[in-house]
């Protein structure tokens, strides 16, 4: 484990400065944290082509890693000269998730940063891409960076959830807002907070085994008012200005996606909760958003807050 806070960039295997690469460099400078870069290379065709002898395969693999290492060194040399604490690790692995998982646990970064990798929906039916593994299992906050982004986010949107079942779940909102507020300060970004009130989901969750039950007149309006008051109180406690508080109604995924697009949000901050050993992601809202990401998404895990700077 590192003694001082660090960010971890999971670099693209392609030798190019991706949006996540630029985001990681910019965040490390803004926060004063060190930057660790890990790149996992694996060219499957080299392993399966039978006419390569073990020695030839080893030579090809070493040459591939050497070229990648030289390219990475050329990219970070200037940043080191400017005073940034940055180092890199290259590995060759056929089990990318397992090796990355071990590496993340070993260095305990304050945040993992990675380019988002879109997969066709049919492929997700038969396999679990690295992004989904990280979303569900990574032990620290992870930021998935989209292609249309600024090196530092200019507008950050924190999405809270007031429909929680216990105090531990509600405390995740405080963790999320503390993280988003600190990040906004470091990036000199504008912070907005949103809560999407989903009456249909609340009603459905309370339906008995005998089906939907009648609702007393005025109950829906009273519950909405109670949620809106609780949202305003939460925002006030965290110093969020009134014009940056957004109480919306609708389905969380589509409502958040539309709001982020319409308001040019650069980074959406969301929370996850472990429930009975399985990672629950805000009713799968975060997972669904990653399929149509309107902006970069930072996923905060319950009980893992550790802010750099």
The CATH superfamily of the largest domain is known as HUPs
β-sheet strand percentage: 15-25%
Structural class: alpha/beta
Low-confidence sequence ranges: 276-281
CATH topology of the largest domain: Rossmann fold
Number of helices: 11
* CATH architecture field of the largest domain: 3-Layer(aba) Sandwich
Main pleated sheet: 11 strands, mixed
Please provide the ordered H/E string of secondary-structure elements.
EHEHHEHEHHEEHEHHEHEEHE
Q: Which CATH C-level class of the largest domain is it?
A: Alpha Beta
Number of strands: 11
Q: Summarize the amount of helix as a percent range.
A: 40-55%
Describe this structure in words.
The structure is a single chain. The protein has helices at 19-31, 44-48, 54-81, 96-107, 121-124, 130-137, 167-187, 199-205, 219-237, 252-262, 285-291; strands spanning 6-10, 34-41, 86-92, 111-115, 142-145, 155-160, 190-197, 245-249, 267-275, 278-280, 296-301. By secondary structure, it is of the alpha/beta class. The protein folds into 2 domains: 1-148, Rossmann fold (3-Layer(aba) Sandwich); 153-309, HUPs (Rossmann fold). Strands 1, 2, 3, 4, 5, 6, 7, 8, 9, 10 and 11 form an 11-stranded mixed sheet that branches. Strand 6, helix 7 and strand 7 (190-197) form a beta-alpha-beta unit. Helix 10 packs across helix 11. The protein is elongated and about 80 Å long. It starts with 5 loop residues before the first strand and ends in an 8-residue tail after the last strand.
